[in-house]
């Protein structure tokens, strides 16, 4: 197919550079990004560690670089919202991250919630539904979005789960690479399936090496023997694993012209935010990714 002309701005996850926030912001500017996404879970970006004055100073600094925030990452790890004993604390922290996002100029926070069970009658499904219902109501009250990252389950099943919440306060951060690397789901069809919920995307590419990849081995699952979600573990799997590999944009199984055309078809005008989870030479790969996405501009 012909190359679509994309209207989207290009973002970079600051943490992908694997340096501090301030240095990462400068690097994002230097590679030609329009905006940034920042983890706001622990350390200097934990909402509990940022005073009112510190938040204003950070927002001013980002603006001084000519950047804006595409979203915050509010991924609290572990089993997402599958474990009822942890949900009260995780829900409260997620709310604080959404409030921080608004103060910094974004109404989008992205996250992983855990694998949505196929059985709607299971206790884990009910636990996740109740947590997301509360977060969706809170997000809608602020005109914000708590966006689930695609990958752990097929897009049609994720849509079914979201439809059950009754609003789009909990929405979607679309990651095409997670789909091709793990479930083998088609990102293009996924865009059409989730068209009513997509508020942010990750620009990432990958390939699936094994015929079958159990999502529980990648993302963890409450009650399953594999470890819970750990981004360093996923980075190791993506860099040198036997089941899938994350690769530079345009070198994997994501059909970028068809995928970007699908986003255009559904009227998505938000960010394409580059995520590079592998540890070796991320800065060079991110620059290549920015340049790759710019080839789809007029």
UniProtKB/TrEMBL annotation:
<dbReference type="InterPro" id="IPR036237">
    <property type="entry name" value="Xyl_isomerase-like_sf"/>
</dbReference>
<feature type="domain" description="Xylose isomerase-like TIM barrel">
    <location>
        <begin position="27"/>
        <end position="295"/>
    </location>
</feature>
<protein>
    <submittedName>
        <fullName>Sugar phosphate isomerase/epimerase</fullName>
    </submittedName>
</protein>
<dbReference type="InterPro" id="IPR013022">
    <property type="entry name" value="Xyl_isomerase-like_TIM-brl"/>
</dbReference>
<keyword id="KW-0413">Isomerase</keyword>
<dbReference type="InterPro" id="IPR050312">
    <property type="entry name" value="IolE/XylAMocC-like"/>
</dbReference>
<dbReference type="Pfam" id="PF01261">
    <property type="entry name" value="AP_endonuc_2"/>
</dbReference>
<dbReference type="GO" id="GO:0016853">
    <property type="term" value="F:isomerase activity"/>
</dbReference>
């Amino acid at each position: 197919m012909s190359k679509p002309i994309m209207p989207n701005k290009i973002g970079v996850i600051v943490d992908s550079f694997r340096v501090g926030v301030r240095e990462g912001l400068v690097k994002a500017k230097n590679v030609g990004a329009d905006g940034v996404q920042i983890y706001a879970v622990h350390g200097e970006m934990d909402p509990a560690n940022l005073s009112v004055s510190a938040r204003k100073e950070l927002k001013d600094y980002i603006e001084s670089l000519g950047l804006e925030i595409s979203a915050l990452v509010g991924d609290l790890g572990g089993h997402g919202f599958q474990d009822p004993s942890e949900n009260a604390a995780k829900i409260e922290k997620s709310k604080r991250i959404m409030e921080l996002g608004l103060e910094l100029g974004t109404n989008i926070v992205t996250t992983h919630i855990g694998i949505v069970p196929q059985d709607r009658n299971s206790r884990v499904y009910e636990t996740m539904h109740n947590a997301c219902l509360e977060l969706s109501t809170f997000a809608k009250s602020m005109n914000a979005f708590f966006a689930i990252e695609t990958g752990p389950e097929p897009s049609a099943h994720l849509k079914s789960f979201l439809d059950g919440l009754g609003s789009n306060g909990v929405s979607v951060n679309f990651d095409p690479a997670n789909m091709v690397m793990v479930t083998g789901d088609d990102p293009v069809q996924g865009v059409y399936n989730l068209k009513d919920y997509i508020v942010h995307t990750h620009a990432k590419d990958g390939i699936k090496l094994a015929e079958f990849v159990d999502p529980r081995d990648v993302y963890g699952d409450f009650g399953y023997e594999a470890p819970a979600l750990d981004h360093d573990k996923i980075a190791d799997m993506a860099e040198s694993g036997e089941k899938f590999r994350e690769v530079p944009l345009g070198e994997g199984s994501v059909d970028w012209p068809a995928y970007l055309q699908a986003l255009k078809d559904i009227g998505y005008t938000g960010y394409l935010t580059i995520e590079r989870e592998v540890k070796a030479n991320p800065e060079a790969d991110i620059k290549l990714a920015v340049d790759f996405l710019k080839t789809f501009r007029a």
